[in-house]
């Protein structure tokens, strides 16, 4: 995987780059994850979001367990070449493992993080199959 477009990305010391997934219609930020070269190349090839799981140390095809696949609509690289922005269609409307639309469901209120977005589906019914 030595395509010139992959070489332009500024990978961190672990060979990773942060990737932001954004809803292609609303523009809402759904989640942030990490990609290595293989994940980014496969994302482009398969037209679906594929990340690198740092905790599991393996490729993670978003939705492989939950069914909540992210279909790729557009991919962008920021001005410093060190952040990827994925414009996606979030199948099933749930991006977060907590069963919410977005991983960014907490807001700071009176010096306390408060969940302000509803759980759309109980995560136990998503992952405990």
State the name of the first-level CATH class of the domain at 4-92.
Answer: Alpha Beta
Could you say what the CATH architecture of the domain at 4-92 is? Roll
- Give the % helix: 10-25%
Sheet of most strands? 4 strands, mixed
End-to-end CA span: 36 Å
The general outline is: globular
Quaternary form: single chain
In short:
It contains three helices and eight strands.
Describe the structure.
The protein has a 4-stranded mixed β-sheet with strand order 2-1-6-5, covered by helices on one side. A two-stranded antiparallel ribbon has the order 3-4. It has helices spanning 4-8, 37-46, 123-127; strands spanning 17-23, 29-35, 50-53, 58-61, 70-77, 84-90, 106-109, 112-115. The mean pLDDT is 95. The chain has a domain at 4-92: Roll (Ubiquitin-like (UB roll)), CATH 3.10.20. By secondary structure, the chain is α+β, with helices and mostly antiparallel strands. It is 16% helix and 35% strand. It has 3 helices and 8 strands, in the order αββαββββββα. Keywords: Amino-acid biosynthesis, Cytoplasm, Histidine biosynthesis, Hydrolase, Magnesium, Metal-binding, Zinc.
């Amino acid at each position: 995987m030595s395509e010139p477009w992959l070489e332009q990305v500024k990978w961190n010391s672990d060979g990773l780059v942060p990737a932001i997934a954004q809803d292609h219609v609303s523009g809402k930020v759904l989640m942030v994850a990490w990609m290595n070269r293989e994940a980014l190349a496969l994302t482009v090839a398969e037209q679906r979001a594929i990340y690198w799981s740092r905790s599991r140390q393996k490729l993670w095809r978003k939705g492989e367990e939950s069914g909540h696949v992210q279909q790729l609509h557009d991919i962008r690289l920021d001005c410093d070449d060190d952040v990827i922005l994925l414009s996606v269609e979030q199948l099933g409307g749930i991006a977060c493992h907590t069963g919410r639309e977005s991983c960014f469901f907490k807001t700071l209120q009176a010096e306390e993080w408060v969940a302000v977005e509803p759980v759309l589906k109980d995560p136990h019914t998503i992952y405990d199959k």
